[in-house]
Amino acid sequence: MSFKIDVLQATFAVLTLIVFLGTVYSVKNNTYLDTSDPLITHLPHHLHNTHYFATKSNFLNVLFIKRAWAWTSSAFLSLWITSPHQQRSIRRLYKWALATAAWLVFTSWFFGPALLERFIAASGGECTVSLPSGAAFSIPNELCFTKSRISPVTHPSLFASPLLLPEGQWTAIPRMRRGHDVSGHLFLVTMSILFLADQLTVSLRSSSSSWTHAHKYAIIYTAAIIGMWLFAAYTTSVYFHTPLEKLTGYLLGVAGYALTRII
Q1: The predicted structure's pLDDT at residue 216
Q2: What is the rounded distance in angstroms from the CA atom of residue 196 to the CA atom of residue 76?
Q3: 122-168 pLDDT, tens per residue?
Q4: Given 4, 133, 136, 177, which residue has the most CB atoms within 10 angstroms?
């Protein structure tokens, strides 16, 4: 048990240090992008030419962070399936199901809009659409909540104002801006890191002689996913969101993991 606590404490400490130092660095060196500012958030990051991970199209974001819970779930399931029989408890599956529910409620759906979207709206956020010209204007929040794709053809009443509209076919998906944009990336990777570290220690506190080859590979795979999420926490802390938005994302991630401890 003490080894389990040590592993969790070490993981928690490393994650906290990464988020703290990354945030301090981003403020001191002006490396972060305010993702809630509709006038700049659609533009390339001001460091995109010199810092690869400042671009949203970097491989870590496209291949992994956008599918973070799928990668986290694959790591957990590989551990659980290959574990010795006595470690394949239903309780561990319940923990994963509860964490999955937290992911869905905060990022995807909660009797309508996700909690993170509701929080942006409640903190003064507005649904905005950015034109290729750089102009941005507010539209009804429901269009953001439903993730509707809009254009002058599909929603002519929204474009009645004399704005500089682009020629030809043009569509856009509006986004919630101006409110408190909790860092969804930090929320998810924080919860994933702590959840996987907790699950990994179930294997580490048992004798390695009881591990099958498949389970050894599962342990290595899970450790690699944790390492990747720690690096993702670093890149998000350095390049994206305001300091307060990063703090709330981190704290919500810790809270999401804490929910799994009630089982």
Answers
A1: 95
A2: 7
A3: 888 888 887 766 667 787 888 788 777 877 777 777 766 555 555 55
A4: 177
